[in-house]
Specification:
It is built from 44 helices and ten strands. By secondary structure, it is mainly alpha-helical. The strands form two sheets. Strands 1, 2, 3, 4 and 5 form a five-stranded mixed β-sheet that branches. Strands 6, 7, 8, 9 and 10 form a five-stranded mixed β-sheet that branches. Helix 5 (71-83) packs across helix 6, helix 26 packs across helix 28 and helix 31 (622-635) packs parallel to helix 33 (677-708).
Length: 999
């Protein structure tokens, strides 16, 4: 058959045409003596060309022929291959798809006879048929040989299309059941005394329990043991544990015939830390008291498969009611979704795009979505209680819990992905869920799935198409039927019942499902374009709302915004076309009261959320803000209108800052939550302080212009104090300030003072007028003589007072003084005046230090609210803001004159400077910084959640949960937040005791 040099034989060309990739090697194999009787038979070449890998099939056939014990056996095989099409298709199909099974046939050349039978009972064997196939095994080695022989017949039916992927998975699970029974028989026979002491049931879990096993997979099990009649329970459990351990080794250990598969018992109570075998009552005690949500999700697939059948059924009857109550657990949906996210996060980055099972759009997405719906609705609908994914999906569609079109698409995608998984594993019989990168492997997989034109490209395209479908549908699957429940359906569609819709909303965390359904109906009903877009958006938005502490508020606020903006053409287009905008809006609307309240007063601010790269939420600079506000003041007709415009800008920018803070704290699907908590605090403090300064500058300009034209009779400056001067304002902070003025040349001091006081009075009035915008409260209580002193002083008056009467607390307060608005030269001279007071050249004397300590103690005792838990008070409690700030400020007063880095109004900057100067240990500085950042974040969180300022954690459980979510604690972990706060502040208080009270 070999052609001369430089020529291609007709056989060579035919081989290429039949799908061989190495025609030269194929020609040599066809020329081998073993194939001599049939090498010219066209049936052989056609049959080889129909396999997934003709080269592999031909090589396997030659090896099998070489392994036959003699000429007679070889002739029998050849005659059967040519004459019997069923055997030919099965044998060559297996040889072309599985190198591992070809190796098995080479080692056991008579096993090809297992493929000859083609009777109806062989087409869909069950556990009974597989048990007959394993009946003669006497040890682990013979068990492996018999197992592979049975596996050979399953693979043959699979690759020939006799069984579909679901039937193949069911057969593999039945074979696993028969194998576990055979292994248990061997283990009991090896220890008859132990076997006599106990009853042992083997419960299949996972894919084996669900009757949907892979070719190569861990077989998950749980063991239940009870003493035999009259036996001691302790001895019986030890005996059962020995038998169970031996069963696991029989299946898992590697022998000359390899291994079967690992038996994994880690789904048992307490996992690998718990006893391998428990009694039924011990199982129940654990599940009733300690089990986590995922454990009930796992029990959904529990199925007795081996051992004591009665005990297995008792176990199932006992745990099933617990499974169907799991959806009533607090944070049930969030727990399930969190588990799914954790699985994705643990995939190595290099593998995520090749993960067929665990990656986005993979098999696990379908399985999780189906199981979630089963657990929610299976409580009241027994038809959903199947452990098999495709059967459960079919039942969900039949009951209206999933749209039929969605279910059909998911069914098709799941079957394709499972078929890919089967073909990948079948080749080497290795446990893997990674799509290979080698082109030959991809070609073989593609051809095995019927993709013959361009197998590699077609396989990749189909895989990505189905993965995209799964990714798009798996989360919407839970939410879309909620819309169908209130919308007009196509004829023949089944509607989710009101009770089922209520169940689903409650499971998602909605406290008022009836109102939620009314909102959905208002948003999504009708035939308008607006309603159509809402129906597209809402399934995703409902999921994001459910991922918050208050889904009801998120949905209600979304309805309010949509009612206000629904007729504007850009609003729904923004949410539909820019994924970031929709998710950002969902986060903002469900994170608390403050941001939605700010948004409702001017809903067009939604546009700020729409910048895909997050730029729309970036805080604007003070210069930019002042420029906008001053321009609005110039255009305004009078001070009142001007200040209204300035307050409008402030409201919009407060919303921008709050939205950016919420999105940064929660994270999005494309951008994780900000890991640096200090950066979030600094961003908010800087943004709100700059905004307050710009608002005051605009208000000052408006008041002066209305009362005096371009020039006030006196120079006038505003000095920021406290958190304002320190660039650390929170959402609910007042503006602490001092007012200073200086009469212009030739102006009477009384006239100047009257003008200055009138400016202050008018500014305060205009900034507090009732309106749609939040008021800005100006607090001047840190002025000399406090509330008893004049509201405004001249620079000379300040100088005289500080020279004569200044108290220690005033020097302390001046550490935070920084100009924020008005005459820059006057403000600069004021700072020059106070610097020697706040940074005294000689430092602080002992009397002054004692006075500061006394003042702090008095403040804590007098200001701490009655009944408040001091350890949870963010401002005055141990290790809170006051502790950290007074400690840092004491260092500034003592050392600021000689350490330039300490001359700052910002707490964190001063703390870092003290560390650099060696005034505080690095570890201690880190402890104080962590506590200050956490306490500041708590105050910001309380304001965002409740819409009003507060220094203590909310008592309302939902509000506390929302504070926890903002601070990075998932559903059900508010207690962990409080523990972490106490731990952090306790460590900070220890440092304060040493540095503030002891130094």
């Amino acid at each position: 058959m070999t052609a001369g040099p430089g020529r291609r034989s007709s056989t060579f060309t035919r081989l290429l045409r039949h799908g061989f990739t190495d025609a030269t090697a194929a020609e040599r194999l066809l020329d081998s003596p073993e194939l001599a009787p049939i090498r010219t038979d066209p049936v052989l070449l056609d049959a080889l060309g129909a396999t997934a890998d003709p080269d592999l099939a031909l090589l396997g056939l030659v090896r099998l022929l070489e392994a036959q014990p003699g000429p007679t056996a070889r002739r029998e095989l050849l005659d059967t291959v040519i004459a019997a099409k069923p055997l030919r298709d099965r044998l060559l199909g297996v040889l072309g798809a599985s190198a591992a099974l070809a190796d098995h046939l080479t080692r056991h050349p008579g096993d090809w006879h297992a493929l000859v039978m083609y009777e109806p009972r062989d087409l869909h064997p069950g556990v009974e048929e597989f048990e007959r196939g394993l009946a003669e095994v006497t040890d682990p080695v013979s068990l492996r040989v018999a197992y592979r022989r049975c596996l050979l017949s399953i693979a043959a039916r699979d690759v020939c299309g006799t069984t579909d992927v679901a039937q193949t998975a069911a057969e593999l699970a039945d074979l696993a059941t028969a194998t576990l029974r055979a292994a248990l028989r061997l283990a009991r026979a090896a220890a008859p005394d132990d076997a006599a002491l106990c009853r042992l049931a083997v419960i299949a879990m996972g894919k084996c329990g669900g009757h949907e096993l892979n070719y190569v997979s861990d077989v998950d099990v749980i063991f239940v043991g009870e003493p035999a009649d009259g036996a001691d329970e302790g001895k019986a459990l030890r005996a059962a544990t020995k038998i169970a351990s031996h069963l696991m080794r029989i299946c898992s250990e590697t022998t000359v015939e390899g291994s079967i598969w690992p038996v994994d018992a880690n789904l048992r109570p307490e996992g690998r830390n718990g006893p391998l075998v428990r009694t039924l009552s011990s199982h129940l005690a654990y599940y009733q008291r300690w089990a986590k949500t995922w454990e009930f999700q796992a029990l959904l697939k529990a199925r007795p498969v081996a051992g004591d059948a009665e005990l297995g059924e008792e176990y199932l009857a006992a745990v099933q009611p617990l499974v169907w109550k799991a959806a009533e657990r607090e944070n049930f949906v969030a727990d399930v979704q969190k588990m799914r996210r954790r699985v994705v996060e643990n995939i190595p980055a290099a593998e995520i795009d090749r993960q067929l099972k665990l990656g986005p759009g993979g098999l696990r997405d379908v399985e999780f979505a189906v199981q979630l719906l089963q657990l929610v609705h299976g409580r009241t609908d027994p038809s959903l209680r199947s452990g098999t994914t495709l059967d459960a999906l079919k039942a969900l569609a039949a009951g209206g819990y999933v749209g039929r079109a969605d279910a059909a698409q998911l069914d098709e995608a799941y079957r394709f992905l499972r078929s890919m998984e089967h073909r990948i594993q079948l080749f080497r019989l290795r446990r893997t869920h990674l799509v290979p990168e080698d082109e030959a492997d991809l070609r073989r997989i593609g051809r095995s799935l019927g993709l013959r034109t361009d197998p590699v490209a077609d396989l990749h395209r189909e895989w990505k198409r189905h993965a995209t479908v799964v990714r798009r549908l798996h989360e919407k699957l839970f939410y879309r039927p909620l819309l169908d429940a209130v919308a007009q359906l196509a004829p023949g569609e089944v509607r989710l019942s009101p009770e089922a819709a209520r169940e689903r909303l409650v499971a998602l965390g909605y406290a008022d499902p009836a109102s939620a359904l009314r909102h959905l109906e208002a948003l999504a009903s009708g035939v308008s374009r607006k309603a159509a877009i809402q129906r597209t958006l809402l399934p995703v938005l409902l999921g994001w709302f459910a991922d918050s502490a208050d889904p009801d508020a998120g949905l209600l606020n979304f309805r309010k915004v949509s009612d206000a903006l629904g007729k504007t053409p850009w609003y729904l287009r923004l949410l539909r076309d820019e994924g970031a905008a929709a998710q950002n809006l969902a986060r903002v609307l469900s994170a608390g009261r403050l941001a939605p309240d700010l948004l409702m007063r001017a809903p067009e601010a939604v546009a700020l959320l729409g910048d895909g790269d997050g730029g729309g939420l970036e805080p604007r600079s003070r210069a930019h803000l002042e420029q906008e506000i001053l321009a609005a003041v110039r255009r305004a007709d009078g001070a009142a209108q001007a200040v209204t415009a300035a307050r409008g800008v402030r409201r919009r920018e407060l919303f921008r800052t709050a939205a950016a803070d919420i999105v940064g704290s929660y994270g999005t699907e494309d951008r994780p939550a900000e890991a640096d908590q200090g950066a979030l605090v600094d961003r908010v403090g800087r943004a709100v302080s700059d905004l307050t300064a710009a608002t005051l500058a605009g208000t000052l300009r408006a008041v002066v212009r209305e009362g005096w034209g371009d020039t006030l009779p006196t120079r006038f400056a505003i000095i920021g104090m406290g958190r304002f001067g320190g660039h650390e304002l929170g959402y609910g902070s007042d503006a602490d300030v001092l007012f200073v003025h200086e009469p212009r040349d030739g102006v009477d001091e009384r006239e100047a003072a009257e003008a200055a006081n009138k400016v202050v009075s008018e500014m305060r009035r205009l900034l507090q007028l009732p309106s749609a915008d939040p008021p800005l409260l100006i607090d001047a209580d840190l002025r000399p003589e406090g509330k008893s002193g004049p509201l405004v002083r001249t620079l000379k008056s300040y100088a005289a007072y500080y020279r004569r009467w200044s108290l220690t607390w005033e020097s302390h307060a001046l550490l935070r003084a920084e100009p924020v608005a008005g005459d820059e030269d006057l403000a600069r001279r004021f700072i020059e005046l106070i610097d020697p007071l706040r940074y005294p050249a000689a430092g602080l004397g002992d009397d002054a230090v004692r006075e500061i300590r006394r003042l702090k103690a008095r403040m804590e005792s007098e200001r701490l609210p009655r009944g408040a838990d001091p350890k949870l008070h963010a401002k005055l409690g141990p290790g809170g803001l006051s502790d950290v700030e007074w400690t840092v400020q004491l260092l500034q007063l003592r050392h600021g004159a000689r350490e330039p880095g300490l001359r700052t109004t910002r707490t964190r900057e001063a703390l870092a400077a003290a560390r650099e100067a060696g005034l505080i240990r690095e570890e201690d500085a880190g402890i104080l910084d962590e506590a200050w950042v956490l306490a500041t974040r708590v105050r910001n969180a309380v304001m965002l959640v409740r819409g009003r300022a507060g220094d203590t954690f909310p008592t309302d459980t939902r509000d506390l949960a929302a504070v926890g979510r903002y601070l990075g604690y998932g559903p059900g972990h508010a207690g962990d937040l409080l523990d972490a706060y106490r731990r952090t502040t306790r460590r900070a208080r220890a440092v304060v005791e040493e540095l503030f009270y002891g130094g």
